[in-house]
């Protein structure tokens, strides 16, 4: 910023540009968004606990936490938009810039890294057409604007390493071929990697061994 | 041949276990009924304390003792279930919640009654959207069946349960950061004291327990403290769900009695490193634990043995690195994680993790000297013990242990990096042009 | 509050005594041990332990502890110099410098920078960091008044804590996480809030700098000079940064009895008006229709001649910024030298228009009311707010009338859990923190007070019905008798209902009471030194003179021929009517810093002093006498005003014998019985409340019985502008206009106009109205409207506000238009033709 630009910026600042708590009549909150936020506010003893749920609602409604969406949520909650932005930027799952509406988070933490996460992330990026360096440094959206790919810290799916969270569901272990298939499926609207879904996986130790006698003795007790 | 001892994971793959019907058919919610009919809160607390159940989230503090710290009286008290499982290598709570959510909810209801808490929050990490949905359904079922809400099973007890999804921040697993986050703030850890048991959520006394800890509660109530002490070791009673990952044939969760030899866990249950390779280093308790070497594989897997070895059992997550893994690269990955996850509140953690990453990057690109390794080690020492919470230490301890135990490999990496063509650094890091000074 | 017991601890081998529970970092100072800190600042609330600079060793605890958050216990043994502590301190300093650019040579903070000092005192003295530091665009404007340099920021959280926990504007936040965290605002909007300048002083590095002060001075070529800001009744204690005989900066001079060490932006940046090129710096005398420079001798002789000719037909108006000495001398000139009783210093107060007879009220009763309101046992101190269990904010919005009280009240509510009730016509900035809020019709304070008095069970008052009664009940429910501080404004109308409320709330008890935020900065002092038409020095009995509107009328009908105006802009402070009437005067003497409506018709203009140039005293609304000390020399031919007035008095035949500012104070102390014996030395740097001095016993208690029972009875509650008082408020018919109120905006002030940095804050005339009325009148926010009533027209921009009471509208006073004349009127609102 040059001194001249700075002077112009200062000259353009007006008291009303400061973002105070917006009043409801100043924003146009979509009804369903307002209802979701209000319902979240009613669930907690103190309304600010609804900040994260409110931002989730904004993100689901607009695809990312848009400034206008945050203003709307701020008006419903009676807080400043700055407060919500401070929350939104603290947490990794909130986006404060536009991103693709399909979302692939590839774990690049140690357990997945040791099992090929870097190759997997690269494969997702190549298949989607997203910049791999950017994807591993905050996330990148495919050139067609559809798919958001991001290298992510440990997602807690190390048993299926290397793995990814695709539209909030876990899949693994994934090969670069799986990545290509998944991107294809995301584009075509088909079910994503049905045989790699974590939800369908059995316990790692296999079928239940004979219950330990101390456990078997409690047949009727506890949860079993 | 080592085998699992499944208590929490019993019936884990029973179809429909996540539904209230199946859970009840298998004996579920009887402990809650018993709690309401037969036990006074004080008796409950005594049972929990006598069982010796230690927190399964990482610190390993006695659960019953923690609950007994809450003041008695009429003030609003809270229970928080820490389901923010984010420690790299840890995924046990995920499977417990996904497959047996009612076991957790029953544990929460009992613990809340014991603590006199009218509100319970399950703080689940936002990434676990799928498990959050499972919990939402289960909580709804439990309300429908009268196990939650006003007047549980016709008693005067009230426990409201809210499933609260986080939004992606490792630090929220730290209990006071979890409270700040739940209050709608940035997830920054708080100064202690005051401890949450005295002044926690919304300023009220708050009991915070991990998913696995709370999942144990129905079993202890059903079978008694002595029964529980029949598992594991004297100081680490009970079973433990251990997440094993990294370079092993069968990564996954294994429920074992504490005290089992570590080698059995890694080699027999999880199948050991693939391709017949050998273990080079292993984290016994998530990536925050100082690494151990192959020489330490025969130690019993328990809170006390791991502490004696200079590491910790932590969340009960074993991450195995075999011979094929570069330790300097492992150190960098580890450091990057903590650098990314530092909340930024306190100086040593914020700047120490940041600086460590920069130095390790230079080690790997060959732009370092062995003297830099001394600085890396000294920076870790400067972090340890000086931070507001344990996150800084959680990087400094494993990274420090790697530099100490594998220094040759770091020196070799420096040499190798120098030998090969220097890799360009990140654009931002490469920008060393003089900065225009701020004179307007 | 019971004092904490003292405990004894040992710090570095030295036995130290400190109150139990005090933080170690503060207790160590009792043993002359300094523990370095960055984030610790008790004014910001609970310690956060973020910077880790204050780590110390406490015997028996293996880990180092943060001294900022460790309360002292008896027998504690603390070490701050051990190797372990030194290593930690070195480590923290080294970490802080990992990302801090060492651009000290071009940094405004250099030389007065805690980071420099602490690096020097506690740092390792060498750097091992060779990696690149983080980069930001810099410096960029955070607001028109503050530049932010994010590279220098050490993320100590002080500024964001101020925004969140002190000012509670919550515009300034920490964004992002970890080492990428930075301080910023929503969507990069400017941070504009009335107290935001405080973050400059809080910043321990050069990350937040004052745009107005940047590169103006180095710390080694400046001098500090302590005085008091007289731009509003807060009377905050300030420190002027003086370089080359110019005031270049204003800093807080922490006085917990007054300001808690905070300043509003008007006080912080308003010093620019002192060196404004618009200043009048020499005496002017009118000849041939024009004002021409004159010698002081000529000017004073001309002034004396003109005033002598008018004699008792002279009126004096003293502006709120005047010191006690100036006010005393003006009223003395009027009363003794000219024999005129017409001295006025306040725009509001006295009887409502309907009860005035030709500008005259029942002087005796008004004086009794004043006495009743000023009774020492009824007055609360600013400090009393700290211990109050409940606070009632009544008919005023401190953010505009006495800004520093806004922060004080927020603090007490947030930290001490005091319960707050707000009852106002105009929405208050404190509404958000209030447990109960009542919004009555504009100008209806008296009616609300009567209802509240009824609700509180005051003798002779009845509970009101309907909405008013319900509102009063809600407000009363928050207030705890014996521990309530009432903060109120200057009311129209008699204070009998206010007094009844105060008594019902047992305001005379310790820690309870009343603080009245007057319109003028030194409103209370001027009142007590005799600048009112109904009371003389020390609220003594006098022949009653004309009040402001009476003077206006007198000028119009010839009853008043001359005016002596001191530090007043009649149009801004009293409304256009008085300003216009000055055109009828035979002779006007105006002492003023700037050309304004007082000089427009003046025959003699005397250049007035700015507060930074004055010697004298002022009286805080809570009765604290404070000293103004001259920090910079007078510009041009400006002279001390007390001296000028004393000479004028002598020329008019009353030789005062006053040859210095302290002698002027001595003269006041002789005549104001409850100021008796007070001296500048006794007032000192922090001031003294006259109520706390022995002479308070000489306060003129009512000779006729219980004070304040004169004046109106409950049934005489003031009328609204239209018709008779209705206690219920029926819905407005579709064609009805708005019942108008006005308020004095913080920024509708000369200081805003004359300080370059503040000019952007000068408000545009705005009509605030409720959403329902906006819909009914088909007006949208941002529309240009004309507000009309009784032949007065004000052009304004409409602003829709949820918290405006339906049926009411508000305009800003002090902008030089006819807004003040519309107070209490039922006005029509029409969209204006678009202007260019």
Molecular structure report:
The complex is a heterotrimer of chains A (224), B (440) and C (836). Chain A is an alpha+beta fold. Chain A contains ten helices and five strands. In chain A, strands 2-3-1-4-5 form a five-stranded mixed β-sheet. In chain A, helix 7 (117-128) runs parallel beside helix 9. Chain A starts with a helix and ends in an 8-residue tail after the last helix. Chain B has helices at 20-25, 30-38, 41-51, 63-68, 92-99, 101-115, 129-144, 175-182, 211-229, 262-269, 303-308, 327-341, 347-365, 370-383, 391-405, 407-419, 427-430, and strands at residues 78-83, 119-124, 160-165, 206-210, 239-246, 252-257, 279-283, 292-293, 317-322. The radius of gyration of chain B is 23 Å and the shape is globular. In chain B, the strands form two sheets. In chain B, strands 6-5-9-7-8 form a five-stranded mixed β-sheet, sandwiched between helices. Chain B has a four-stranded parallel β-sheet with strand order 3-2-1-4, sandwiched between helices. Chain B contains 17 helices and nine strands. Chain B is of the alpha/beta class. By secondary structure, chain C is of the alpha/beta class. At the A-B interface, helix 3, helix 5 and helix 6 of A face helix 5, helix 6, strand 3, helix 9 and strand 5 of B.
- SS-based class of chain B: alpha/beta
Binned, the helix content of chain C reads 25-40%
* Oligomeric state, counting identical vs distinct chains: heterotrimer
Helical fraction of chain B equals 40-55%
Main sheet makeup of chain B: 5 strands, mixed
Please give the radius of gyration of chain B in angstroms: 23 Å
* Helical stretch tally of chain C: 25
Number of strands of chain B: 9
The N- to C-terminal Cα distance of chain B equals 74 Å
Query: What topology, given as strand order, has the largest sheet of chain C?
Result: 15-14-25-24-23-16-17
Biggest interface, CB < 8 A:
A-B, 65 and 91 residues
Please give the order of strands in the largest beta sheet of chain B. 6-5-9-7-8
Q: Average pLDDT of chain C, to the nearest integer?
A: 92
Instruction: Please write the string of helix (H) and strand (E) elements of chain B.
Output: HHHHEHHEHEHEHEEHEEHEHHHHHH
The low-confidence runs of chain C, each spanning 5 or more residues with pLDDT under 50, are 350-360, 704-731
For the residues shown, what is the average pLDDT of chain B?
Answer: 93
Main sheet summary of chain C:
7 strands, mixed
Number of helical runs of chain B?
A: 17
Per DSSP E runs of 2 or more residues, the count of β-strands of chain C stands at 34
